[in-house]
Write a structure and sequence with these properties.
Rossmann fold, 5 strands, 37% helix, alpha/beta, globular, 5 helices
Length: 151
């Protein structure tokens, strides 16, 4: 079974992240969305809420699992027996950074990283921007996948 993880401390329900997961499923049997638990990071939604929202959204896709983790990404990959780490890329700067991290993960842990660009029209949209808009009660519907409900 080809399993990959899609890790982060971000909110992976924004459209850019959703498209990365969908594309990963085109060549993976299973994708585990890993929500990193970082007590020092302020997030718009608490971890329990993020997990619930993402699980609700993907409930009809058994090939997608959602889990919290509080260890190194490569250790999480080993825990869930994933052979790959999927990373979403928005900019060339993101690509350069992630390529360096991918090389480290490959050398130190033997875990391969697959870098997937988001669509060009979503390249400027980050979870930080979406959370900021939410905090001002702005409409974020164009930034989230159809069917995702923000409660």
């Amino acid at each position: 079974m080809k399993r990959a993880i899609f890790p982060g401390t971000f909110d992976p329900f924004t459209i850019g992240h959703y498209s990365v997961v969908e594309r990963a499923l085109s060549f993976m049997d299973e994708v585990v969305i890993g929500i990193g638990v970082n007590e020092n990071k302020n997030t718009y939604f608490p971890i329990e809420k993020r997990l619930e929202m993402i699980e609700d959204f993907y409930m009809e896709k058994p090939e997608i699992k959602v889990m919290a983790y509080d260890c190194l990404t490569v250790d999480f990959a080993r825990q869930v027996e994933a052979m790959f780490i999927i990373r979403g890329i928005r900019t060339v700067k993101d690509f350069e950074y992630e390529e360096t991290i991918a090389d480290i993960n490959r050398k130190l842990a033997g875990v391969e990283t697959i870098l997937l660009f988001t669509e060009p029209e979503l390249s400027c949209v980050s979870s930080t921007i979406v959370r900021e808009l939410l905090s001002y009660n702005k409409d974020i519907s164009r930034f989230i996948p159809k069917g995702m409900i923000i409660r």
